[in-house]
Amino acid sequence: MRGTGLAGVLAAGVGAGSAALWFQLFKRPLPQTSGTIEVAGLEAPVRIERDQLGVPRIEAHTTADLCFGIGFLHAQERLWQLEFYRRVGSGTLAEMVGPEALQVDRMMRTLGMRRASERDAAHLSERDREVLEAYASGVNAAIAAMHAPPLELQLLRATPAPWTPADTLVVRRILALGFSTNMETELFRAELVRKVGIEKAAVLEPRYPRGNPLVTDPGAGWTGDALEIVEQFGRVREAIGLSLEPAGSNNWVVSGDRSVTGAPLMAGDPHISATIPDTWFVLEANTPELELRGGTMPGIPGLVMGQTRHVAWSFTNVLADVQDLFVERIRDHEYEFEGEWRPLTVHREEIAVAGRSAEQLEVLETHHGPIVNGPLGADHGGEPLALSWTALREPMRSSVAIDLGLLKSGEELVEAFREYSSPCMNLLWADDRGNVGYKLVGFIPLRRGGCPDLPKPGWTGEYEWDGYVPYDELPSIVNPPGGTIVTANNRIAPDDYPHHITSEYLDGYRAARIEQLLAERDHHSLDDFERIQSDLYSIPGEQTSHRLARLRPAGQRERSAIERLKSWDFVLDPDTIAGTIYQAFTVHFARLVSEAAIGDPDYAARWRAKSLLGFTAMTTSLWRFQARLLELWDEADSDLIGGRSWDELALEALSEALDELEQAHGSDPARWRWGRVHGLAFPHALGEGPGRISKLFDKLLSRRLAAGGGQETVSQIGFVPHHGDYTGRWAPSLRLLLDLEDPDRSRWQHMTGQSGHPGSPHYDDLLDSWLAGRTNRFAQPAEETLRLSPA
Fold first, then answer.
1. Which residue of 4, 147, 242, 433 lies most exposed, with the fewest beta carbons within 10 A?
2. 8 Å CB contact between 338 and 459
């Protein structure tokens, strides 16, 4: 049942006396979408047309008015999202929702994303200031024009403060945080080495560079509780809808020689957390000088991904190593560096909390960055850890997302990202001159000492950052032989590339499958690309099934399961039963292997269950351990798993997987269909709590689909297995299909709907089409027209 239907049921259920309340909560917040509104801050009138799906087209006379129009639309349709993002990044969420948000606020105040954004806002370039101030004026004009705040803000009795340029910079940093995970993986490696030793850690951690030491200096070894910090940090990410897992994406491009049009075609689909409202807001916009169409993100002026009159571009996450943890030596309010004692920077923060007195927080900072363990209540005797992170060190340039609309070639596009700092992205591009290319963009540290993957001593000066990899030395490709480029978070550069990019490349299954499908025909159309984006074929599912097929279990139940796997087509569609057995087997096999390899079941269970990011979670999540698990099975090193047989362990995992499915879903395999066991949840922030009110809002505002897919399929619908939960948590959040010959043929799709208002018909009207893999044409006829007139 969709949002407006549920709202109607609620109104009818509580009786006619509550009709006014229902109208106030669900209908009064809906924005004005036709007629004329007089607003302050415009240079000239702005015209906003909306098509049948609520996609707006902005027509403005100047760039500043265009930015105003984008801000106005974001606030009209996504004001709750804007306020939520701002409060999360500023560490003021507890002021709105109460003590349960204190953990988030402590983390954000410790990181200092608001402090960094205020610093940047005071030193903006003239162009950045023009763009950000015009956008903020548009947001504030929409707030002034609204009839009532969004439902969420009414329920929380929150009044949005005026939007400022610093607020946009805070949102930019939240997004950078969602794509940066090196801090957590450094702590995991340190904990694993301490628990099982260097040699076994190297076996279990295949992507760690074998030639580099895991521990460079015994004096720098951190003795605190790594998993406790990661657990705290992971909970913060989950609370803001930016969990560690959704770090993947796909994009690919073919040249005119490989397309049916004779011009380049591009596809892009970033994979991030499934929420409602979702992260994206599609629009079209133009002035006499520029034209933009594609995906925007509330809080940010301009396009994140999309197309202009001449150029198209798309991003995937590099998973770049842009965070380092430094073990610090501290006494009183000083820290040691190169034999000298320097004064710590001290920030005293007061966190307002709804319903109780404010909390005081002291944040300590070295030249490396903030000390992150103490304020989280997770030090437990461990040495202080300072976080260096490019997003805290470097300013965020904000006008590029608008100025892209002025560019006429891919070469100009690449140059426009020269000063772009964070997050690091794989930029794929094409232009109407027939060129296609790739460029890694963003700042990647140049490090002394050659130890990028573990916490390192901060007092010696031997592991400092010496600037960043020069832009011209970052990997790039232009018009490669064969006419195709694919990125899917797979390895970027060969072994002889001189700079460290990351040790976190993913397993490459999605990239391999995309390349398979592109090789099936010489010339492709956007219809072909649409089918590829929806592909659910599992390469590791095929590999795992072949391995299980050679085994001879004693039990009839296990033999029947293997027979299902033998006849499976390896497609993780919602109706597959064999695919469910494969996924459950993988989870349990990883659990048994991790317990046997680590040798301490309690520790292994804590690693998996408490942090949600241990070996099991990584195996079936976006991380790259599933491929390693299959390699270890082939290597069959019995010493690694305590002298046991790997095939025996696999059969035990199969039995446990079947036990779990029977206990959770019954003994009839017909009830094990993947869409039922897995599916995809679109949670609303108000429905995430444990109480009865949260459960009510979850039913009212959240959504769920019987979706297929897995972390390894092109249409990636990934999950983190925890206590038998296989629910999808991230997925293709925006699908773009871009035609360089005729941009009006380009297509789009995103997850839920254009509006964040539960009472709007566009709250969730995209869900069914998204699930079916259908896309929508740009440049559709207007259904409504709104005119903004200067006051």
1. 147
2. yes
Extract long-range pairs of 506-509: CB within 8 Å, 24+ residues apart: 506/248, 506/319, 506/622, 506/623, 506/624, 507/540, 507/624, 507/626, 507/627, 507/712, 508/627, 509/538, 509/539, 509/540, 509/627, 509/712, 509/713
For residues 278 and 183, what is the distance between their CA atoms, to the nearest angstrom? 26
CA-angle at 573, arms to 572 and 577, nearest 5°: 75
The label of the residue with tokens 């803000």 reads 153
**Cα separation of 514 and 252, whole Å?**
8
Distance from C-alpha of 19 to C-alpha of 2, rounded to nearest angstrom: 19
**CA gyration radius for the chain?**
26
* AA letter at 11: A
Q: Which H/E stretch holds residue 200?
A: helix 198-204
Write out pLDDT tens, residues 563-598.
999 999 999 999 999 999 999 999 899 889 888 888
Q: Are 299 and 168 in contact (CB under 8 A)?
A: yes
The contacts of residue 460 (CB under 8 Å, 6+ apart) are: 217, 338
- The dihedral sign for the CA sequence 580, 585, 588, 593: negative
pLDDT at 612: 36
Count CB atoms within 10 A of the CB of residue 499: 15
Q: What is the DSSP string of 682-707?
A: E--GGG-SSSHHHHHHHHHH-EEE--
Q: Within 45-164, where are the H helices?
A: 63-90, 94-97, 102-111, 113-121, 126-145, 151-156
CA distance 395 to 173: 10
Distances (CA, A) of 463 to 85, 324, 445, 446, 456: 34, 10, 11, 10, 7
How many CB atoms lie under 10 A from the CB of residue 202?
Answer: 16
**Long-range residue pairs from 509-512, CB within 8 A, at least 24 positions apart, any chain:** 509/538, 509/539, 509/540, 509/627, 509/712, 509/713, 510/248, 510/250, 510/712, 510/713, 510/714, 510/716, 511/250, 511/486, 511/487, 512/539
* CA atoms of 653 and 592, how far apart (whole Å): 7
Q: How many residues does the chain have?
A: 791
Using alpha carbons, select from 87, 91, 68 the residue that is nearest to residue 140.
68
Dist. CA 700–CA 690, nearest whole Å: 15
The alpha carbon of residue 674 and the mean position of all alpha carbons in its chain are separated, in whole angstroms, by 24
Check: CB of residue 350 under 8 Å from CB of residue 358.
yes
Question: What distances in angstroms separate CA 506 from CA 247, 388, 528, 594, 733, one per listed residue?
Answer: 10, 23, 25, 20, 19
Q: Is the Cβ–Cβ distance between 684 and 698 less than 8 Å?
A: yes
Q: Measured over all CA atoms, what is the biggest interatomic distance in the chain, rounded to whole angstroms?
A: 81
Check residue 599 and give its pLDDT.
Answer: 81
The Cα 469–Cα 230 span in angstroms is 28
177 phi and psi angles, rounded to 5 deg: -60, -40
- Reported in sequence order, the residue ranges of 670-764 that DSSP labels E, i.e. its strands, are 680-682, 703-705, 730-732, 734-739, 747-750
With residues binned 3-state (H G I as helix, E B as strand, rest as coil), the percentages for the chain, rounded to 5, are 40, 20, 40
From CA 660, how far away is CA 608, in angstroms rounded? 17
Amino acid at 172: R
Question: Which residues, in sequence order, are CB contacts of 415 under 8 Å at separation 6+?
Answer: none
Cβ–Cβ < 8 Å for 366, 337: yes
Is residue 121 a contact partner of residue 169, using CB atoms and an 8 Å limit?
Answer: yes
Q: Is 440 exposed, middle or buried (0-12, 13-18, 19+ CB in 10 A)?
A: buried
d(CA 706, CA 746): 28
Closest CA to 604 of 205, 238, 227: 227
pLDDT tens digits along 696-740: 899 999 999 999 999 899 999 988 776 678 999 889 999 999 999
Q: For 119-156, write each residue's pLDDT tens digit.
A: 999 999 999 999 999 999 999 999 999 999 999 999 99
CA distance 765 to 348: 46
